[in-house]
Each structure stands twice: as C-alpha cells, then as structure tokens.
Amino acid sequence: MIETLTTSQAAHYLLQDENAAWSYAGAHAIVEHLEQMEEDCGGEPIEFDRVAIRCDFSEHSSLQNWAAGYFGEVDISLGIEADTPSDEIDDKIREYISDHGQLIEFDGGIIVSSF
C-alpha cells in the first residue's frame, strides 16, 4: 500500500519527529530536495522514512557552523588563513561538502548528508 504525501505533509512528519531538530524551513528544504531526486530519477517514488532522513541528514545554521562542529578548527582542516574573507571560507566549506556528500542550502541554514 502506497500513500502519496504532499510537500507539506512530509515536512509536517519530519517536524513531528521528537528525535530530530528540523526547523520549518529545513524540513521543507529536505522534502523539496527528495522530491527533486524523484524527478531526476524519472519519477521513481522514494519511500518516506523520517528516521532514515534524520540519520542521513543534519541541519545547521551556516556553513561555518557545520565546519566548526565537523572539524573543530576549520582553518587547519581546510587550509584557511586567518585573513581569508568569510565568503571564501564558505566556498571552501561548500566545495568540501560537495566533494564528500550532499549540501542543501536554504534561507536560514544548510542541510548536510552524512559522510
């Protein structure tokens, strides 16, 4: 038995997950990303599993916030000098994530796949 969910229904299910910390915008961003993946795969439906989504993706307020948690010291891990402009730091972090996993950017934060 298959139930087709709207974007809002799927985001609502994510927001109801007590073990996750999705923002409203983040929940919608991940669902829209999954819907785009379905379209890119010729419309092949993706099974909605909020536990798997919670385990496979994490939401962060910014690229640099993610990097600080992931690396500890961003400048050492990515070869960033002390005087590197913030937008260049973001570009290096964005490139690192894209090389190793998936990055979903949205107004208010980012979502990164586990890798």
Description:
The chain has one domain. Helix 1 packs across helix 2 (24-40). It is 54% helix and 11% strand. The chain has helices at 7-15, 24-40, 50-56, 63-71, 74-78, 86-100, and strands at 57-60, 103-106, 109-113. It is mostly helical and 115 residues long. The mean pLDDT is 92. A hairpin with a 2-residue loop joins strand 2 (103-106) and strand 3. A three-stranded antiparallel β-sheet has the order 1-3-2. It contains six helices and three strands. The protein starts with 6 loop residues before the first helix and ends with a strand.
Concise overview:
The chain has helices spanning 7-15, 24-40, 50-56, 63-71, 74-78, 86-100, and strands at residues 57-60, 103-106, 109-113. By secondary structure, the chain is mainly α. It starts with 6 loop residues before the first helix and ends with a strand.
